[in-house]
Design brief:
Elements lengths: L6 H10 L6 H22 L8 E10 L7 E8 L9 E7 L5 E7 L2 H9 L8 H11 L2 E4 L4 E4 L3 H11 L6 H7 L1 H6 L33
Antiparallel strand pairs: 1-2, 1-3, 3-4, 5-6
Helix pairs in contact: 3-4, 4-5
């Protein structure tokens, strides 16, 4: 049995390879591999989902330890997944095996750049539409000093209109099937705000003197 090379070994080999490759050939090879993996993911979930159509998601992620490694992660959802950078979403028909791309988002930096540009090349028109729809529901949160997504309805409405579909998002799907889920044994929980911390509980005796050294 031939031992399969690890990702680190392949990365080291790719780094030392000086051969010039045709980018178009590489693109075709990647596309063929993605389609094959999407089909596998779709077929694996055909007996799990009752619906004849569901969503396949490809997320591109880097490796925290090995530089230059790009990992493809596949998943299936019964509803439209929440959009995120470096994500592609496809609609899969389990009876015909047909795969339809709904959106493809680049990394966060490219998304922001494209969305801020008033005009883009024709080949970026679709991507700009997806990026604009993605950022439409975002706002800056002063408390956390970060951007938070307050409303994804803009993005899902854009996708539905673009592709002529009526599929639901996660929140819409759960709301539409609430009674069925409760009957199936899923308990409905109400989330409440957490109690603020009582700073009066802090006393001087409980504070450790940081200047005290420990010998043990």
């Amino acid at each position: 049995m031939t031992k399969r090379k690890t990702a680190g070994e392949l990365s080291l080999k790719a780094t030392s390879d000086n051969t010039k490759y045709d980018p178009l050939e590489i693109g075709y090879a990647l596309t063929d591999d993605v389609i094959a993996q999407l089909q596998i993911c779709g077929q694996n979930h055909s007996h799990i989902f009752d619906e004849y159509e569901y969503f396949l998601v490809l997320v591109v992620a880097g490796d925290p330890l090995i530089k230059g490694i790009r990992r493809h992660k596949y998943a299936a959802f019964i509803h439209m997944p929440k959009p995120r950078p470096q994500q592609s979403c496809f609609l899969y028909n389990k009876f015909t095996g047909k795969i339809k791309r709904l959106w493809s988002l680049p990394d966060a930096k490219v998304m922001a750049t494209i969305s801020q540009m008033p005009y883009v090349d024709k080949k970026w028109h679709e991507t700009k539409g997806w990026c604009d729809a993605f950022f439409r529901g975002w706002m800056f949160d002063d408390a956390t000093q970060t951007y938070i997504n307050t409303d994804t309805h803009h993005f899902f409405d854009y996708i539905r209109k673009q592709h002529g579909i009526k599929h639901l998002s996660e929140a819409e799907y759960l709301d539409a099937h609430r009674e069925e889920l409760i009957k199936a044994g899923c308990k409905e929980t109400n989330t409440t705000l957490s109690d603020p911390f009582d700073f009066s509980k802090i006393s001087i005796e409980k504070i450790i003197n940081t200047n005290t050294s420990f010998t043990d």
